[in-house]
Amino acid sequence: MITLEDIKKNEEVQELILSAQKQMKAIGYTEHSVRHVSIVSSRAGRILETLGYPKERVELARIAGYMHDIGNCVNRAYHAHSGAILAYQILKDMKMPVQDRTEIMMAIGNHDEQTGTAVNDISAALILADKSDAHRDRVVNTNMPTFDKHDKVNYAVTNSEFKIDSENRIATLDLTIDTNICPVLDYFEIFMDRTMMSKYAAKFLNIWFELVINGTKLL
Description:
This protein has nine helices and four strands. The protein starts with a helix and ends with a strand. It has a single domain, classed as Hypothetical protein af1432 (Orthogonal Bundle), CATH 1.10.3210. Helix 3 crosses helix 7 and helix 4 crosses helix 6. It is of the alpha+beta class. It has a four-stranded mixed beta sheet. The longest helix is centred in the C-terminal third of the chain and has 21 residues.
């Protein structure tokens, strides 16, 4: 079985991730580098592992999380679609079984809130993991007066914790937001689509999604 470690050793994957970040930096977009994909990979795997899914599904979720943003190397627009096709071909070249690489392609192709939704357990875990990574570390722009809305909201998040409670079947995104930088309402203005996508992804896994901001449960 192909593992996450095999993917990390693949030079093509690494170059696609690095080049994707170059493009994101050039257009002033938030960080989508090794930091982000590593967090998403770890969280996606932890979600399925905590919920008792087979280790094979857990590993596929980790791989999908690590590869999910390589399409940004092509273009930010429709990056989920181009990334899914790139991932499928790379995994095919690595001799991953067709059933497994198809599942990963489906997950990557459906992780963007503009065009996707949870279609299998791997995609649901990927969505929850990806949308939970809001943090000031993702802001590439260092000039605060020129922050756009996405920069401001992400920079205001000083702490982000994602928790899975298998007993009560609850996924919780617990954020601390500096309201001197941006009000909580701005978070919803920017991230409402992502929040609702997370809610439906959780439902696919038969769990509940909660959003807590500054100690107050908002969803």
